[in-house]
Amino acid sequence: ILFNLYNNIPTLFTLGPVNLKGRSFLTLKDFSSDEIKHLLWVSGDLKHRIKHEKQYLPLLQGKSIAMIFEKRSTRTRMSTETGFSLLGGHPCFLTSQDIHLGVNESSTDTARVLSGLSDIVLARVNSHTTLEELVKDASIPIINGLSDLYHPIQILADFLTLQEHYGSLSGLTISWIGDGNNVLHSFMMTAAKLGVHLRVATPKGYDPDSSIIQEAQRLSKQHGTQFLLTSDPVEAARGSNVLVTDTWVSMGQEEEKKQRIKDFLGYQITMQTGSVAKPDWTFLHCLPRKQEEVDDQVFYSPRSLVFPEAENRKWTIMGLMVSLLTDYSPQIPMPRF
């Protein structure tokens, strides 16, 4: 019998063999339940050993990461740079002024050049097809740091945060109230694999991608979870453990701001929204946050997990990079999922 270090109770949970070394990470659609749980386990392990036990683990010593940013970000840049450095590696940050994917040099040539100069690439891009082009010609792992279609590294941080808070994930209900965007798409590709029910409310005209809806419905049926789509925020929030939203106006959509704020009227998360959720409900937001999305009473309340969620971006990107580059096995017992 192993004892879970998160809540000090016996655990007999096991995973099948998982080896992610050399894999790319574009979408959680491509990863199994056991593989996602393994990534969360490694992330929690590194957090425990480095943050709490104060151990020095130079697991990536001698390695380098090329970080391509077509879109700015506080959390993605800081978590990746500090995390890779903390593990002994060298991060190299490339903005659109340093590298013009598909403009000054083709994505094919860029992929081949970076494969010879670095060990792994994290790319935060405008179009998901850019990532697919990089993967096609790279001989090293490519990580999706964000695309128009998915934001998988954010979802790893969200689920680590919920696992730490609730002690386990299976049986939880998450309610997404907001835009049918890349973050929601990644939730839809992941929740059912972890035994999590997903209730989604988006305004009419802001629905998730239809093909991703079909895959989420298939996954929900396969894993025996509930998946609801509605345009009613109250219906989505009812009976939920976790209320989640995101920006209503993503980068590149600034000209649509006035119309979007009008269309999202009634979607702000407030204590009134939470009144129909479960008594233990919590709140997540990947940040940056605007007040029209969630009011201060919720955002700065004890129910809000947004700042632990932001910190966990660091531990989960570290867990992911270690898993894709090494044969590391977690040292702490596997937590409950």
UniProtKB/TrEMBL annotation:
Boundaries of every Aspartate/ornithine carbamoyltransferase carbamoyl-P binding domain copy: 23-164
Domain of life, source organism: Eukaryota
Pathway membership: Nitrogen metabolism; urea cycle; L-citrulline from L-ornithine and carbamoyl phosphate: step 1/1
EC number annotated for this UniProt entry: 2.1.3.3
KW Transferase (keyword) present: yes
CC terms in the record's Gene Ontology section: mitochondrial matrix
Subcellular location: Mitochondrion matrix
Keyword annotations: Amino-acid biosynthesis, Arginine biosynthesis, Mitochondrion, Transferase, Transit peptide, Urea cycle
PROSITE patterns per UniProt: CARBAMOYLTRANSFERASE (PS00097)
Gene3D superfamilies: Aspartate/ornithine carbamoyltransferase
Domain Aspartate/ornithine carbamoyltransferase Asp/Orn-binding positions: 171-323
A Pfam family it matches: OTCace
GO MF entry, a single one: ornithine carbamoyltransferase activity
Principal place of residence: mitochondrion
Keyword Transit peptide attached: yes
NCBIfam families: orni_carb_tr, PRK00779.1
Family: Belongs to the aspartate/ornithine carbamoyltransferase superfamily. OTCase family.
Subunit structure: Homotrimer.
Protein name (Swiss-Prot/TrEMBL): ornithine carbamoyltransferase
